[in-house]
């Protein structure tokens, strides 16, 4: 068993996670954690759709921000993909996608304020970085022969139009539609920092314990995501794209002085602004590094490693729920619904809910991250396992699971898990905004104290950490020869 | 005037020389067949020849270079994308202009696949695809052609018909053919390739099937 | 086919419906720090908006925000011209917007207090000073940018224990607002918390507190807190004397229901210098550069 590199790597990560468990604060501090959780589920089954009349508008804004943000991101991302072979473009894309949507939103809020552009750019910028990477990977896979067979002197645009794009159009379409689903989640979560999307009202309802109201919003959100294939068609898409920009709401006009002030004053490190010179800058930087960045990085890493392993465990436990190799059709339907709920609920929302009911520690964050990501991986692995054909006399039940199925899907399972490593870390950092001491906590504190110079330094550190993990994950995947399609 | 000229060229693959060094010229008005057993270096030679040609040349590569996701029409239309502006091409992708439809339709009719003009390429058989690639080369309107086994998937009468059509549209070409009879019947000159070198280069009028078979 | 048609119609309706825009250019916009449950804030400040609109004869609009910093930033960016700030957020805002002024404060805001509250399981009872027993308890502030929920309690904790809260308590949280601090301590999620005394008194009067579960253990010395702050450039935009009219309107506010929702007895004039003590404390703690 231990001679398999995949098994050795898995064990190595499990050992690290167990080490983290010993160091991390995982207590449940709430006096009645299960009662609150019970109340929440009671709210989910007794949704109140009519208590809040702004619900329709919130849903509309959520859709509009997602559509405009993803459309803009995919257009810019496509152009970047064409230039992706230049390392400057690759580094640029890597950097913009290493910064989470919520951080982008927090940055833009400082100078665009509540203008719709804040929400649109918060989605479009990181998404264009992701689109650029994935589109370029898709384009690289395209059969180059048709382009070579074109008559000499064919222009670049015509070459793309005729020989390259048609070959990967389906993949680009599928991936972009999939990203739109991610965009809906991002858009909803932006409400938590004040944009007029679903998260805004969800946060208010949760904070006030109005679980039936929150339940109604969540259910509507699930329905919207689950029915995407019904309403998002080739015929309806142009309509949505044209209508979406008009449905962003008007917000408040942009005042350009604020923009220039942000870039020329706010983000200049305080010691330079106050003329304390390089010595002051050094003290300032050292202070951020020691009192905020280091503890932030430490907690972010602890949380990420625990969440990563628990994600794997949950994925391995849940994928049989939808696999045709196990169970009955009726049971599988239940499994599908369960996994749809897990993966449609943004981890930020899950963490928020669990923090409310269990009290503040790393536990709610670990569980939230693992449930969401485990749901995504479980869904993909389950689908893959359904395509396996076993010999007619293959064992059943647990033996089938252990001897036939898991060994066959383990490599792609690991590939997906390592792919999500960086995503989990990006989210971990963000969860700090909710009060767990990861990097996001210190970013949020700096913003609450109107110290954008500090916030930006911390965001940059977070981005570097993400880029580092992304590289490491790629090295591991290459060593183990694991391949996967992108997920979000 | 030469339309194809290779001068002391060679090709290597993974550090191993697979072709040449060799020289080969095809003059305007010359129809040349390239024969030899598979692996002798014909395809490599054709690739080199294509790379060293001017722009006025059509190509039917071995794997045809078709786009499965597009219709037959658009695959054929691609023969002229270099002669049209980008916006014209983009519009054609959405809705073809009628004069292009007619021109492409005429060629497809000659190749007996007129009924397939709007079918997606992916739904065609191997022989039909081969004819689409040939149609694309013809539609390009160049005087010279380089083709790698363009009729390998066609049955006897159809192969004859297509070769006749090629002779009609191209006054000079370099075509790899495994069918020696076809080569002798339609080409003016036979070039035999063995182990990456030219082993035979004679006008076909001076050759018989028996002269060529030792190459195989 | 029919289904997709109905779907289309529904979508068209939902998209067209919200197009009942109002122009913002000549609207007087204000915000408030989100120190309490949002529903309550919206009710209270919608009332204020209606009142001001009537008094000032311009469109007045209230926008809710998600954080104290967002309120300060909106004020700084001139997306709102007036704000109901806490002591600290007011000082931050006025530092960032030269020319802005504290206009009015509640009668109670001259001498505001923070209550430290504890869950009954701690066994703590009310005393005249911070107790040694607080060490290694779990503790929650309100919002990070709150005066009565964070700045002043942190100040008194530092003063008494001569250490940062993180070193005194076993766990330090930021609940987000005063109501939530109350709920979290009441539920036992945190053992001890610090909150705005007005919120406590109001919730107590409304019968919303389980006094069996939570009680006050210490009342801080008093300090200045909430105030209305206005931007210096409103006269240019809304006409000469506008600032004074806003101040007068606030001082004249006598709707008992509206005042009770704050809860304040009435509003009295305020000036920037009133909040000097807050600035000093904020600088000591390092919240202000």
Automatic annotation (TrEMBL), chain A:
It is found in: Cell membrane. The keyword Methyltransferase does not apply. The chain crosses the membrane at residues 55-82, 102-129, 214-232, 239-256, 302-322, 423-443, 455-473. Signal peptide: none annotated. It is a multi-pass membrane protein. Its main location: membrane. Keywords: Cell membrane, Membrane, Transmembrane, Transmembrane helix, Transport. InterPro entries: MetI-like_sf. One of its GO terms (cellular component) is plasma membrane. PANTHER family: ABC TRANSPORT SYSTEM PERMEASE PROTEIN P69, PHOSPHONATES TRANSPORT SYSTEM PERMEASE PROTEIN. This is Phosphonate transport system permease protein. The lineage of its organism: Bacteria, Pseudomonadati, Pseudomonadota, Gammaproteobacteria, Pseudomonadales.
Automatic annotation (TrEMBL), chain B:
The lineage of its organism: Bacteria, Pseudomonadati, Pseudomonadota, Gammaproteobacteria, Pseudomonadales. It comes from the Bacteria. One of its GO terms (molecular function) is ATP hydrolysis activity. Keywords: ATP-binding, Nucleotide-binding. The keyword Acetylation does not apply. Residues 4-212 form the ABC transporter domain. Pfam families: ABC_tran. SUPFAM superfamilies: P-loop containing nucleoside triphosphate hydrolases (SSF52540). PANTHER family: ABC TRANSPORTER ATP-BINDING PROTEIN, HEMIN IMPORT ATP-BINDING PROTEIN HMUV. This is Phosphonate transport system ATP-binding protein.
From TrEMBL, chain C:
It comes from the Bacteria. One of its GO terms (cellular component) is ATP-binding cassette (ABC) transporter complex. Residues 1-25 form the signal peptide. The keyword Signal applies. Keywords: Signal. GO terms for biological process: transmembrane transport. Belongs to the phosphate/phosphite/phosphonate binding protein family. NCBIfam families: 3A0109s03R, ABC_peri_selen. This is Phosphonate transport system substrate-binding protein. It comes from Marinobacter mobilis.
